[in-house]
Amino acid sequence: MASLLGKHLFTLNGQGPPPSKDFFQLLITNNEVILTSWKISVRLDCRGAAPTELKTSHQDFLHQKMLQQQVVAVFGQRILEHTKSLCQGKFDYLERLPDDILLKIMSHLDLKDTTLLAQASQRFRKLCDSEKFWEQTVRSCAEFTSDMEGIANAMGWRRMFFTFFHTSKEQQ
C-alpha cells in the first residue's frame, strides 16, 4: 500500500532556531530519512560551504535520539511524531488524497459535519474555506438556478450560500 504514496513520503523546509540562520530540509522517502542543512553566515569561512546531509534508514532514525532532537529543534515535536509514524509505516492516506477526490467525499457530508472536518487539519480547513467547496455546496442546493451563477461568481460562492439561505429562512 505504501507504493501508492510515491517515492517521497514527506518533505519540509525551514530555518533553524535563533540565533542560527541556517536552513534545513527534512525529506522522508520510502526507506530513508534525510536531514539536509545549509550554513547561512556572513563569515568568510562559511561562504560556498556545501550543505551537510544526514541520511539514515527508517529503523535507524527511530533509535537515533540526537537526530530526533535536531528535528525537534528545527521543526518541532509534532513533526518529529509525524516522522516517527512514517518510519513505523503508519501512513495517513486520507491526507494524501487529491483535493478533487476529497471535495467529492465532502459533498456527501452535512454542512455541520464539514465544520468539524475543518478542525481536523490545516488542509481540511483550507478545503472547507475554498471557493471550490462553496461552489459545490451552492450548486447542490435544489433551489440553485443558472441565473444565480453570475451572482455567485461576482460575490463569491460562500457569501452567496449564506446570503441565499439567510434570506430564504427569513421568508419562511
Automatic annotation (TrEMBL):
The lineage's top-level taxon is Eukaryota
Concerning SUPFAM superfamilies, the annotation shows: F-box domain
According to the UniProt entry, where is the signal peptide? none
* Transmembrane intervals: none
Please report the stretch or stretches of sequence annotated as the F-box domain.
91-137
InterPro entries the record matches: F-box-like_dom_sf, F-box_dom
Q: Name one Pfam family in it.
A: F-box
| Protein's name in the database | F-box only protein 36a isoform X1
- From which organism does this entry originate? Cottoperca gobio
